[in-house]
Amino acid sequence: MTTTRIRIDLSQGIIEAEGSEEFVRAIYGDFKGRLESTPIAPTPPAVGEKGGKGGKDTTARPAGDKSRRAANYAPKIAKDLDLSGKGDKESLKDFAARYEAGSNFERNLVYMYYLSQILEKSPVTMDDVFTCYRSLQVKAPTDLYSSLFDTARHKGWVDVKSTENVEITVPGINHLEHDLPKKPNA
User: Fold this and answer.
1) Which of 17, 154, 166, 186 could cysteine-pair with 27, CB 3.0–4.6 Å?
2) What are phi and psi of 58, to 5 degrees?
3) Lowest mean pLDDT among 53-67, 88-102, 141-155
4) Which of 181, 163, 171 is nearest to 73 (CA)?
C-alpha cells in the first residue's frame, strides 16, 4: 500500500493528511468544499509591499466578492426591530446590562445572542446589530462589516454569510452562556 501525503498551509490554517490516496483525496475534497464556502482574509503584506510598514493601506479586508459588498455597506437603523422587551421578552438594555462586554467582539456576541436566541430573529442582519449599538447609545464600530467579520475570523462566535444574514455559532453561544464575565449583582 502506498502512502500519500498532503499539507496545505493557507497562512497557518494548516491541514495535513497522510494515508491511502483515496483517504487523502476525501480529506482534500471536504477541505476544498469548506474553503470555497468560507471567506478567507488575505495575509498581511510583507515589509516594503503596499500596505506593509511604510505603506499606506494596512487595513485587512475580506477576500473576494465580500470585500466589494463591505465597501458599499452603510449600516441603517432597522425601524421594524423592537428591542424594548414588550410582552414576555427581556429588553436588550436589561440583557446587555448583565454582561461585562469590554470589546466590540464581545458586544457583537451579546447583540447577536439577544437577537437570535432571545428575540428568535432569523435571519439577523448587520442593520439589526447596528440598531442594537444605537439603541444602547454605545459607539458602533466605524466599519461594522469588518467588525463582525473579524469576530467571526478571530473568535468564531458568529458566521457572516452576508450583510443580510449573520448567524451566531455554537462556540459563540457557549462563550456567552459560560465564559463571558457577568457584572456583579446581575
Assistant:
1) 17
2) -110, 10
3) 53-67
4) 163
Rounded Cα distance between 24 and 40, Å, is 23
The residues, any chain, with a CB within 8 Å of residue 160's CB and separated by 6 or more, are 39, 66, 145, 148, 149, 152, 166
**Rounded distance, CA 137 to CA 120, Å?**
23
Handedness of CA 17, 18, 19, 25 (dihedral sign): positive
- Which residue's entry shows cell 452576508? 162
Residue 42 has pLDDT above 60, yes or no: no
Decide the pairing of beta strands 4-8 and 15-19: antiparallel
CATH of domain 92-179: 1.10.10
Spatial distance between the Cα atoms of 117 and 128, rounded to a whole number of angstroms: 14
Q: How far apart are CA 85 and CA 127, in angstroms?
A: 19
Contacts of 113 (CB under 8 A, 6+ apart): 168, 172, 173, 176
The CB density around residue 152, as the number of other CB atoms within 10 Å, is 24
Grid coordinates of 149: 467579520
C-alpha dihedral, 141 to 158 to 153 to 101, nearest 10°: 50
Strands (E), 28-164: 158-162
List 160's β-bridge partners, or say none: 166
| DSSP code at position 80 | T
